[in-house]
Amino acid sequence: MKKLIASLAVSSVLLGDCAKGPAPTPVNPRDAVLNAMTAVYEAGTLHEELKMSMSAAGQSLAISGEADLDNEHKRAHMTMDLGMLGGEMEILIDDGVMYMRSPMFQDAGTEWVKMDPSKMDPAAAAQFGGFGAGTTDPSAFVGLFAGVFDVKASGEQELKGVPTTHYVGTIDLKRVLKGFADVVGKDVDAATKVQLKTAVAQFESLGIQEKIPFEIWIDTDGLPRRQRITMDFGKLVPGAEEASMEMTVDFSGFGKPVHIQIPDPSEVTDMTRALGDAGSGSGYG
To answer: Please, what sign has the CA dihedral across residues 28, 29, 35, 39?
Structure first.
């Protein structure tokens, strides 16, 4: 597990030493990005802050939230402000299953409801859980970056007091599955492969089948500090002119303890079928 050792004082000393000795070996930008995403997996735990904005047909929507992730146990705890979509929501994830608590589910009869994206049509899962809703396995998340290409360094920037290098590039969904094993290892289990395929299928179900531009800021420990994905749906999805989305995730708290308690079954109503039918536009029966 890596520790965050970067500071301005230490960086000054290291830079001074480098000036006296041989020049450091340049880092390949694509390798830097892949190594950073692998480092997220290896860190075990981390904290995320999410901001998402969407606009279409003159309307705009903003979503924000925070999350604590336990990669080893495939668990997460999130608090979300969904704005006009439903106000505040608390979400727990346990090995892919989502538990939700929100006023919008007040008629469920229990404090929590749950949804299993693996049992839903990918298009429905994408609508309710966002991109990669079924992809809670961190190896599958890292695997999405197997499709990264055309990566370039775009200068140095300090984020919340942490020095970082800014990279820009593109994810090609058609390259993801082909290069997956090269990123997370050839001995990856079958369940992880299934989750990665689910994530790609969710993008494709929304009409996104080609390239996704991204930005990432990586600190001197090789850990990602910010990641941003932008999409112009007018170019990706026919009939979605002037529709766009920007999602920014800030990373921190690598390796710090995370405690996530899953609700007792008596406190949970399973709404997988109901939400799946609503997302796919079908009814019961």
So the answer is: positive
- Rounded distance between C-alpha atoms, residue 41 and residue 262, angstroms: 22
Which residues, 6 or more positions from 17, have their beta carbon under 8 angstroms from its beta carbon?
none
Q: How many CB atoms lie within 10 A of CB 283?
A: 7
Please calculate the CA angle 239-244-247 and round it to the nearest 5 degrees.
Answer: 145
| Closest residue by Cα to residue 222 from 254, 249, 247 | 254
Q: Are the C-beta atoms of residues 211 and 201 closer than 8 Å to each other?
A: no
pTM above 0.85, yes or no: no
Give the Cα separation of 196 and 206 in Å (integer): 16
DSSP, collapsed to helix, strand or coil, labels residue 31 as helix
Going by C-alpha positions, the residue among 278, 252, 250, 238 that lies closest to residue 52 is: 250
Q: Bridge-partner residues for 97, per DSSP?
A: 94
Of 11-15, 137-141, 191-195, 211-215, highest mean pLDDT: 211-215
